[in-house]
Amino acid sequence: MALAPRLPRLRAERVRLRLILVASGAYAAVFALVTWQARRGQPLIHPDGATLAAAGLIFVGAPTAA
User: Fold this and answer.
1) Which alpha helices (DSSP H) does the chain contain, by range?
2) In angstroms, how far is the first alpha carbon of the chain from the final one?
């Protein structure tokens, strides 16, 4: 709500709700990705191709959904 008075596009409550839902979905997806990576025994800073592909989908999909 801090930016709503300054940005006309954020004044609608529905828009703010949608942004919160997208952000929480992206957070849950990243959490699931890191959990999946840990369960496979991979180090966090050296992911394999499958993990990088999944991360790419998350980081492209979240802004697209917003």
Assistant:
1) 13-39, 49-65
2) 17
